[in-house]
Amino acid sequence: MQLVQLVTHVCEICNKAFTLKNALKYHLLTHTKEKPHVCDICGKAFAHKHYIKSHLLTHTNEKPHVCKICSKAFTQSGNLKSHLLTHSKEKPHICKICSKAFTLSSTLKSHLLTHVKEKPYVCEVCSKAFRHRLSLKSHVATHSNEKPHICETCGKVFTHKSNLKCHLLTHTKEKPYVCEICSKAFALNHHLKSHLLTHSKQKPYVCKLCSKAFTAKGSLKSHLLTHIKE
């Protein structure tokens, strides 16, 4: 039996070896930072041809990768793979500091910042720093006073999409967050969290003027007004 000898193509910069010449060709782009594949619609550039193919789907809103369990559709196969983990409840990404497990590697990366207290994303307007890029993006919108998210029911506008989602629940009267102790339902998750404190008798909000403690943040705010009146 004759063995076929594999030809190895080695990168002269980092000595990484590849079986295929094309693989080496693609790898070299990581060193040169060259992005020869440009989107004709928005001008965004990519190093590899398959990246631009995936990107073009964002313009057409085409979502060819469909979850067989819940029928949710995705633009990229990688996003579908990440989504499938939510069905399996598998959490393969584990924090080495506190052993907390996560479904996605990106979520683990965000979590790690809570240990190092690092805030790499800084606002250019007021220098406020954030752990996450999306938090900075949301914050920057507060400087511009731009409110691009509009409620189609009443016309109310919001800076953040998450605020619009919360607002929409006031129209639908939907209350998806249910207390497991007394079955009381709430429209917003943070309202449920505040409610749960009434069962635990925990009072984390303390007045710095008189040391009186409260279950809810809103109750503390109302209490502070009594000191102002004094």
From TrEMBL:
Keywords: DNA-binding, Metal-binding, Methyltransferase, Nucleus, Repeat, Transcription, Transcription regulation, Transferase, Zinc, Zinc-finger
SUPFAM superfamilies, per the entry: beta-beta-alpha zinc fingers
GO cellular component, one term: chromatin
Keyword field contains Repeat: yes
Amino-acid biosynthesis is among the record's keywords: no
Molecular-function annotations in GO: DNA-binding transcription factor activity, RNA polymerase II-specific; methyltransferase activity; RNA polymerase II cis-regulatory region sequence-specific DNA binding; zinc ion binding
Matches recorded under SMART domains: ZnF_C2H2 (SM00355)
Occurrences of domain C2H2-type (ranges): 9-36, 37-64, 65-92, 93-120, 121-148, 149-176, 177-204, 205-230
One GO term of the biological process aspect: methylation
Compartments (UniProt record): Nucleus
Family: Belongs to the krueppel C2H2-type zinc-finger protein family.
Record's protein name: Histone-lysine N-methyltransferase PRDM9
Organism field: Araneus ventricosus
Gene that this polypeptide is encoded by: Prdm9_133
